[in-house]
Amino acid sequence: MAAFRFDGEHVLTGIDVDISRLVLTEAGFCSEFVRFPSSSRGLLELENGRVDLLTAASYTDSRAHTVIFQPPIGANECDCFGMKIPAI
């Protein structure tokens, strides 16, 4: 299951979105998901107080100086494939 994706034009779906909606609803908050062109833009909006929460933001030591990260709820694996080129 994807962390998040757009289903069609504007409907955001995925495990990160589902968990965020559930937690916010159970805590009595309403939510609106906004698409940003990059994670850097999302972090800037968070730091400037224009958004309250980001999903799927990767941890770095420099980001941890300005934002709070929750413990990971899952792990992603990436596999890379390429052609094996014979020695000449």
Summarize the structure in words:
The chain has helices spanning 15-26, 39-47, 61-64; strands at 5-7, 11-13. The chain has 88 residues and is mainly α. The chain has one domain (1-88). The mean pLDDT is 77. This is Transporter substrate-binding domain-containing protein. Residues 7-73 form the Solute-binding protein family 3/N-terminal domain. InterPro entries: Solute-binding_3/MltF_N. It holds the Pfam family SBP_bac_3.
Total discrete domains: 1
Helix content: 25-40%
In whole angstroms, how far apart are the ends? Answer: 42 Å
Major sheet attributes: 2 strands, antiparallel
Say how many strands there are: 2
Q: What percentage of the residues does DSSP assign to strands (E)?
A: 5-15%
Structural class: mainly alpha
Cα-based radius of gyration, to the nearest Å: 17 Å
Tell the overall outline. extended
Low-confidence stretches: none
Residue-averaged pLDDT: 77
Major beta sheet, strand line-up: 1-2
